[in-house]
Amino acid sequence: MFDPRLLRAFVTIFESGSFTAAADKLHLTQSTISQQLARLEESVGHSLIDRTARPLQLTASGEYLIGYAQRILTLQQEAEAVLKDPAGSNPIRIGLPEDMM
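Now predict its structure.
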């Protein structure tokens, strides 16, 4: 199972184009972002980003995983939103002046 924090680091590195920008966006240090990516790469058994390429480029494995990672994070956000406020769970309150009752 993928750790969402590691996937978020990977996706943010890809979307922002650099480790530094990803660290800034996630309010983490660049070292932490690098460590999170290394842990994800270790868990999948493949390098995901070509660290020598400028601009940053995904490896073949990274290209394969990025779409899944983005979908996993989107689904997680949707599930959290639904569980925080499932349809109809919050009552609607309507205020009326006393003379209308």
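DSSP finds four helices and two strands in the chain.
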